[in-house]
Design a protein that fits this description.
By secondary structure, the protein is α+β, with helices and mostly antiparallel strands. The protein folds into two domains: about 220 residues, no CATH class; about 190 residues, Nucleotide cyclase, GGDEF domain (Alpha-Beta Plaits, 2-Layer Sandwich). Helices cover about 65% and strands about 15% of the residues. The chain has 15 helices and nine strands. Strands 1, 2, 3, 4, 5, 6, 7, 8 and 9 form a nine-stranded mixed sheet that branches. The longest helix is centred in the middle third of the chain and has 54 residues. The chain is rod-shaped, with a radius of gyration of 37 Å. The termini are far apart.
Length: about 425
């Protein structure tokens, strides 16, 4: 692969990842802020382990000092001990200092700089160390910091600059003339370059992993939103955590059915797009009312609308919640009727009592209700009158002290025979 194709491939990969070419910052400010916050937290969490490794290597090198040094061992021991104390202080600050948590990259870079100065020029001044020995110690510190402390590019480059300055200012290098300096420049710059490349690769890997995780979370959020639009939140959680049929019984809820009177002629007079738009506007308004009243929408079938109060979240005052929803639906329909090509009316039926609710099937599943209460609510609507809210005797018994009703009437309900029903007129203002 030639240089130009390789360069084009690299630029294309960066464009796909939405990162800048060298410093790797994301193009989107929000994504960059999220990554920095996430990476800082992970870096702080990795801090205790990295500092423990630093203490271990400091002790090991302290033991090796005995074999390397002929003079100045006490000074070397004191400096090694001060480095251990510095690591201990850093551990305490990592646990308690908000400043370190707020600026972890800057704090880490400062710590690395102090350690490099101690391991390089300071040790070189107190003992007759070979320059290669001190440079190796500094190299281990730099590579360990890059690998364990999650240094990002700015911090890694700053630490590398300090590393180069420390290695090239060692007494043995500084006092050895041009030849000694020249012999240390190449390995020092080479190690600094390797450290920067490692930091670059690790940060790019972390950023790529963060992007992929972010995409997964966004897709999960979209999936959850779609699922919550189909199922109640609590039911969606149960279905996700334990696939299979979900069935619950409720001893007392209120069920509502509504239907537009004369919808068929209206639908024949409209284009499909216009019809769907009108229904969508109306049902969106009903959905908002359900949210306001704590009522769960069950489904729509054509121009019919079904809802339940008291499920899946219990509501001791479910009948009142449903009554208020029905009255709100009437007012909303009156407001929207001017947008329809001809006057429209709606029948509403409400019944209260026990039901069984659940989710069945493996695909295109919905949360649905079963039981005599559901059938009664449906009959209250189908045997009702336009612009009226017909309720069962059970619903009336729950609301008669707080709402105004018409006189009782006996309706011959298909499949049930004569039933006593009432029309809900509104809140009782007595």
């Amino acid at each position: 692969m030639g240089v130009n194709p390789l360069r084009g491939w690299v630029l294309e990969r960066h464009a796909q990842l939405h990162m800048r070419r060298w410093m790797l910052e994301f193009d989107q400010r929000e994504a960059e802020e999220e990554f920095v916050a996430y990476d800082d937290v992970m870096g702080v969490n990795a801090g205790p382990f990295a500092l423990s490794i630093g203490v271990f290597f400091t002790v090991v090198y302290g033991v090796v000092d005995v074999l390397v040094l002929d003079d100045g061992l006490l000074g070397a021991v004191l400096i090694r001990l001060s480095i251990v104390v510095l690591f201990a202080i850093s551990l305490v600050m990592l646990a308690r200092s908000m400043l370190v948590h707020r600026f972890p990259q800057a704090s880490t870079t400062l710590l690395i700089a102090l350690i490099l100065v101690s391991l390089g020029p300071a040790l070189g001044l107190v003992g007759d160390f070979p320059p290669e020995y001190l440079r190796t110690s500094c190299s281990v510190t730099l590579l360990g910091a890059v690998g364990l402390l999650r240094l990002r590019m700015h911090a890694a480059m700053a630490a590398s600059v300090v590393y180069v300055a420390c290695c090239l200012s060692l007494p043995g290098v500084r006092n050895g003339g041009v030849d000694a300096l020249a012999s240390h420049v190449a390995p020092t710059l080479g190690m600094a370059s390797i450290a920067v490349l490692i930091a670059y690769a690790l940060e790019k890997l972390r950023r790529t992993d963060f992007l992929r995780q972010r995409e997964v979370e966004l897709e999960q959020a979209r999936s959850d939103e779609l699922l919550h639009n189909v199922l109640p939140v609590t039911i969606a959680h149960r279905l996700r955590n334990g696939p299979g049929a979900i069935a619950d019984s409720a001893p007392s809820v209120s069920v509502l059915f509504s239907d537009i009177v004369g919808f068929t002629p209206v639908s024949e007079a409209l284009e499909p797009e216009e019809l769907v738009q009108l229904l969508d506007t109306m049902f969106r308004a009903f959905d908002a009312l359900c949210d306001q009243r704590g009522v769960e929408k069950i489904k729509t079938v054509g121009d019919a609308y079904m809802a339940v109060a008291g499920l899946p979240d219990p509501d001791e005052d479910h009948a009142a919640s449903m009554a208020e929803l029905a009255l709100d639906m009437q007012r909303t329909l009156a407001r929207l009727s001017s947008t329809w090509p001809s006057p429209i009316a709606m029948r509403i039926g409400i019944a209260s009592g026990p039901v069984v609710a659940g989710v069945i099937g493996q695909r295109k599943f919905t949360y649905d209700l079963w039981g005599d209460t559901v059938n009664t609510a449906s009959r209250m609507e189908s045997h009702g009158r336009p612009h009226r809210i017909q309720v069962s005797a059970a619903t009336h018994a729950l609301l008669e002290d707080r709402y105004a009703f018409s006189d009782a009437q006996v309706v011959d309900v298909k499949g049930k025979g004569p039933m006593t029903t009432y029309f809900l007129l509104g809140a009782d203002v007595r």
